[in-house]
């Protein structure tokens, strides 16, 4: 039985492997481009309040905090929270943060109000019930607010195994290989995530493939390219099909509709702005 993954035992290694690599740089770059679009949509004369759910060391939410916004970061791992606090302090952003030791499925108990923005990045694939966790977080978003979800793509996992010839592994259902401790527990099917968002009434605003071809390049390949070229090509292809749907991760962001007096108030503010 799958249980939610706690990274207390691997916090240092996880942070280094995820953020200190070319893979991490591609991920940070293309998702930040989307977040810039999201922040433009949420433009406000007051600081936004966002949640970094299962946020690890908060690499992307720190870039948002640098713009003056307030962040609640929660994580199941106390060791990961310690790393986050050190990194946030190093960057002089502790005043913008509240760090909460909590699973994402209980963070509502620590919130005083609904959120302008929720970041839920690379967490669902480590959970026993990813749908329930996502739907719980959708409830924490205010009308007009946005959720930013990045997940380990089942299609990308399947394609990687196909081109590596792991057909027996595919026929067995691609069970998690315990010897690969940093490999997510499961791939998440994009159509399911999109339907979970839409069934909750959210409007999908954009989708991006994260590492649409980088991870499929053979390590023995003697090609004519630099990392800068790879990054630029990823940026060029990541929002186009069929490349988008083959990303090792997919980033999708969706907005909760405005309703009633809240919608009228928002429209009035926009008209006056």
What does this structure look like?
It contains 10 helices and 7 strands. It is of the alpha/beta class and 273 residues long. It has a single domain, classed as Rossmann fold (3-Layer(aba) Sandwich). Strands 3-2-1-4-5-7-6 form a 7-stranded mixed β-sheet, with helices on both faces. Helix 2 runs parallel beside helix 9.
Describe the SSE topology.
Blueprint: H1 11-19, H2 22-41, E1 49-53, H3 59-65, E2 70-75, H4 78-90, E3 97-101, E4 115-121, H5 130-138, E5 141-152, H6 154-163, H7 167-171, H8 190-199, E6 203-210, H9 227-237, E7 249-255, H10 260-272
Parallel strand pairs: 1-2, 1-4, 2-3, 4-5
Antiparallel strand pairs: 5-7, 6-7
Helix pairs in contact: 2-9
Binding site for S-adenosyl-L-methionine: 27, 54-55, 75, 121
GO molecular function, one term: tRNA (5-carboxymethoxyuridine(34)-5-O)-methyltransferase activity
Protein name: tRNA 5-carboxymethoxyuridine methyltransferase
């Amino acid at each position: 039985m799958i249980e939610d993954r706690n990274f207390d035992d691997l916090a240092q290694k996880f942070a280094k492997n995820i953020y200190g690599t070319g893979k991490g740089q591609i991920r940070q770059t293309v998702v930040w481009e989307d977040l810039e679009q999201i922040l433009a949509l949420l433009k406000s004369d007051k600081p936004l309040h966002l949640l970094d759910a299962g946020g690890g060391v908060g690499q992307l939410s720190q870039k948002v905090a640098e713009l003056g916004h307030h962040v609640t970061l929660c994580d199941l791992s106390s060791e990961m929270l310690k790393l986050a606090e050190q990194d946030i302090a190093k960057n002089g952003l502790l005043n913008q943060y509240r760090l909460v030791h909590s699973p994402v499925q209980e963070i509502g108990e620590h919130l005083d109000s609904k959120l302008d923005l929720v970041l839920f990045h690379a967490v669902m694939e480590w959970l026993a019930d990813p749908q329930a966790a996502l739907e719980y977080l959708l409830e924490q978003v205010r009308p007009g607010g946005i959720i930013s979800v990045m997940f380990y793509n089942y299609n990308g996992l399947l394609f990687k195994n196909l081109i590596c010839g792991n057909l027996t592994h595919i026929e067995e259902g691609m069970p998690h290989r315990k010897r690969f401790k940093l490999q997510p527990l499961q791939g998440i099917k994009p159509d399911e995530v999109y339907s979970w968002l839409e069934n909750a009434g959210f409007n999908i605003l954009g989708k991006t493939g994260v590492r649409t071809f980088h991870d499929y390049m053979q390590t023995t390949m003697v090609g004519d390219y630099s990392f800068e070229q790879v990054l630029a090509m990823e940026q060029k292809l990541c929002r186009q099909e069929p490349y988008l749907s083959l990303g090792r991760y997919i980033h999708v962001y969706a907005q909760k509709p405005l309703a009633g007096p809240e919608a009228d108030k928002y429209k009035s503010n926009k008209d006056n702005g």
